[in-house]
Amino acid sequence: MRHLVLPACLLAAAAAPAQNYIETFPFPDGTGTTVKIPLWTPQTGNWVITNKRLVYQSGATFGYITTDRYKGVADFVLDVDVFYGATQNLYYGGLVGRHPGSSATSNFVYCKLQDNAVGGTGAFNSVWMYENPGGANYYAVSPSVKSGTMRLIVKGATAWADLDTNMDGIFEYKGAPRTLTTVGASTGLIGIAGYNATELDNFKYYRGVLLADATTTPKIGTTYKMVFSAPLENGNPTPWLGLCALGRAGIPIPGGTLPLSLDALLVNSFGFGWSGILTSTTPEATLQLPVPNDTGLVGLDFFVAALTLSGGGAASISNDHHVKIVQ
Questions:
Q1: What is the DSSP code (8-state) at residue 297?
Q2: pLDDT, tens digit, 9 for 90 and up, residues 207-238
Q3: SS3 string of 58-86?
Q4: DSSP 8-state class, residue 236
Q5: Helix, strand, or coil here: 7?
Q6: Which residues pair with 238 in a beta bridge?
Q7: Is this model's pTM higher than 0.70 or not?
Q8: H-helix or E-strand containing 314?
Q9: Distant-in-sequence, close-in-space partners of 198: CB < 8 Å, separation ≥ 6
Q10: What pairing do the DSSP bridges indicate for beta strands 63-67 and 40-44?
């Protein structure tokens, strides 16, 4: 019955409280100056809407703003589009999770796309992920970029920071996992980080987490595996379903937006057998993809997502996960 319910949902407008969330900041210029940005709270610094983007206004200080929609978030995937400021400077923009609230400057995890030079270079050239306190992971971005989509993944005591330089959903830079020693068991608020007048847009929150099984690759003649996790609904066994598509345009369903396109591959993927029940003893699901030993498949790109179901709609929706078949 689950497979019969979801196709009907795919054609419906979202009707339930979203268990993933997309914020495009469609507010009038100046919102945040004297009128609060709806459903957002600045934790440090001043934030304002400019040209339908969120801009940090407190100069060379560390700024954080969190959404009011969710509290006590443990595991998550967050995305945000980051744009270089109007003039050359040391800029950064990114994401924050497990934030304790108020003006705290520690006990959370955050990532940032940064122009890492005093006075700036004119473009972003590095990615950083910090646990405050605890240290940082870093990688260089070359060639440097004027914009990009940052992704922060936190699952248990591990975090990753990825970068998509052309905002097509394919994260060319995959950050090394970092073990969280201070906030590894924490929960908190989720939101955005900024420094100087960096511009940010299209914040996304995914309650479900879909990751590659690090022991496999999508290679012809092998079985590729992905791991999905999401909260149980009221602690009860919770049905889940995985799907894939050639695109990631987004499909509104009750409970949020499935980050896939409604195409022929998605329809066919209902037959892949990616379904089951998450329980307290089996809190993760493995999606297995047997890849035929066919060189004609090499280079094929597609996207996978998963969700849990409750009450006729989505309870949790995962991030889109890009797969490219290799030889």
A1: G
A2: 999 999 999 999 999 999 999 999 999 999 99
A3: CCCCCEEEEECCCCCECCEEEEEEEECCC
A4: B
A5: helix
A6: 278
A7: yes
A8: strand 313-317
A9: 55, 56, 82, 83, 84, 85, 91, 92, 93
A10: antiparallel
